[in-house]
Specification:
The structure holds three protein chains of three kinds. By secondary structure, chain A is mainly α. Chain A is built from seven helices and four strands. Chain B is mostly helical. Helices cover 91% and strands 0% of the residues of chain B. In chain B, helix 1 runs antiparallel to helix 3. The chains are: A mainly alpha, B mainly alpha, C mainly alpha.
């Protein structure tokens, strides 16, 4: 029987090697492409015949977009409209990847730290670049809260820098840990069901209990999948806000 | 004792810290409920304090978990 | 025929009933359960602050060859930074609560405060 950690294995589907590096087409890449195709189908066929009075599908697409626009407006303000496509892509990719990971036999793309940290590192660098592009070198006053007495400066500046550097860590580890923990838990309880069922007799009847637990956990994991995608997008807007509106 | 066995034992001991953090979290939520059921109108306004206390306690538990992981996979 | 009877009610009454259903009174147990989910997220802020501080100190140490000292300093600075991150995150949550939930709290008249003092 497969162990609870086997679902996170990356298996090459089509081996490719470029200059000594292994860049094989793996099941992770396959699922990422599947997620992209699902998003494309959802968006394209939802908006194909865009009507003034939207149907159900079109309302779903528009509702999702309105949700992200509302989030950006609330956290960044009018200057944030330019970043709506970025936040929206990020949000919908993580959302669909989280939910697709809950399908049976699926591979959860976001349960790998490499993936989530790549997102977070990209956002981190983007925040710095936007900050410098918008405010020039005065952006570095971000590390110095106004009204700091001069004798506290050598203490406050390193603290603020550490605080800023810990952002990508929390952003990536939060998503990764939530997805990984949930999926391990699901597989452990599924393993109980199978081993109790194989034991036969009265044990098979006891196996109903972990099965019921698994159903409940599955509902919880659906909530976690949506909430984590939302939190990731929300924190991205909050961090972008710090770079765009340098307020002190 | 073999080094490998000592490592595993140490990881097990470090994981006990998680249980202790669980005691702390239980105390925090228990105390909160005790107060909140006496004065439900004030419960919501005290939620930031609840979150803060819980987060600090839980962070100490996560440190114990990290020590266990470091002993298992890094050392 | 509950539909017809319902629609005879004035719009304001139906709106109030719907609002009541959508935002039930805050239950302390629900507050605590929600706090557990949020708190787990917030705990990470503290951990990440300390880890980044200690790691930064350690790499500076290895670079400059002053092994224990900068790590310890980085750990302490990271502790402060982690707490600051935590306070900010909690304040962000608190701002959300004060807007949405404090408005829905039951009002208590305080005109008889003076009498109850004695």
């Amino acid at each position: 029987m497969a162990g609870p950690l086997e679902q996170f294995d990356i298996k090459p589907i089509y081996p490719i090697e470029v200059a000594g590096y292994d860049v094989s087409f793996t099941n992770a890449s396959a699922w990422m492409i599947a997620v992209l195709v699902a998003i494309w189908v959802f968006m394209f066929f939802g908006m194909r015949k865009a009507e003034l009075v939207p149907g159900r599908w079109q309302s779903a697409v528009e509702g999702l977009h309105e949700f992200v626009v509302g989030m950006v407006d609330e956290n960044i303000g009018p200057k944030g409209r330019a970043y709506v496509p970025f936040i929206f892509s990020l949000f919908i990719f993580i959302l669909v990847a989280n939910i697709a990971g809950l399908l049976p036999y699926a591979f959860t793309v976001t349960s790998h730290l490499a993936v989530t940290f790549a997102f977070a590192a990209f956002i981190f660098v983007l925040c710095i670049l936007i900050g410098i592009a918008k405010h020039g070198l005065s952006w570095f006053s971000f590390f110095l809260p106004p009204g700091t007495p001069w004798y506290l400066m050598p203490l406050i500046i390193p603290i603020e820098i550490i605080s800023f550097l810990s952002r990508p860590i929390t952003l990536s580890v939060r998503l990764f840990a939530n997805m990984t923990a949930g999926h391990i838990l699901l597989k452990i309880f599924a393993g109980f069901v199978i081993s109790l069922g194989l034991a036969g007799g009265i044990w098979a009847a006891v196996g109903v209990l972990p099965f019921a637990m698994n159903v409940a956990l599955y509902a919880l994991e659906l909530i976690v999948a949506v909430v984590q995608a939302y939190v990731f997008a929300l924190l991205t807007t909050v961090y972008l806000n710090d770079s765009i509106n340098l307020e002190h | 004792m073999e080094a490998e066995a000592a490592k595993l034992l140490g990881a097990g001991f470090a994981a006990m810290g998680l249980g202790m953090a669980a005691i702390g979290v239980g105390l925090i939520f228990g105390m909160f409920l005790l107060g909140a059921l006496r004065n439900p109108a004030a419960a919501n306004s005290q939620r930031p304090n609840l979150l803060f206390g819980f987060a600090v306690t839980e962070a100490l538990g996560i440190f114990a978990f990290l020590v266990a992981l470091i002993l298992l996979f890094v050392v | 025929m509950t539909e017809t009877r319902k629609s005879e009610l004035p719009l304001e009454a139906r709106l109030a009933a719907a609002r009541e259903r959508a935002n039930p009174q805050a239950d302390p147990r629900a507050v605590a359960g929600n706090a557990f989910a949020q708190g787990t997220r917030l705990a990470l802020e503290l951990v990440a602050g300390i880890l980044v501080g200690a790691a930064l100190g350690y790499f500076l140490d290895r670079w400059l060859g002053t092994l224990p000292w900068l790590s310890i300093l980085g750990f302490l600075l990271g502790l402060v930074a982690g707490f600051m991150n935590l306070m900010r995150a909690v304040n962000r949550e608190a701002a959300k609560i004060s807007e949405a939930e404090l408005a829905a709290l039951p009002r208590v008249d305080d005109h008889d405060d003076e009498e109850s003092m004695f």
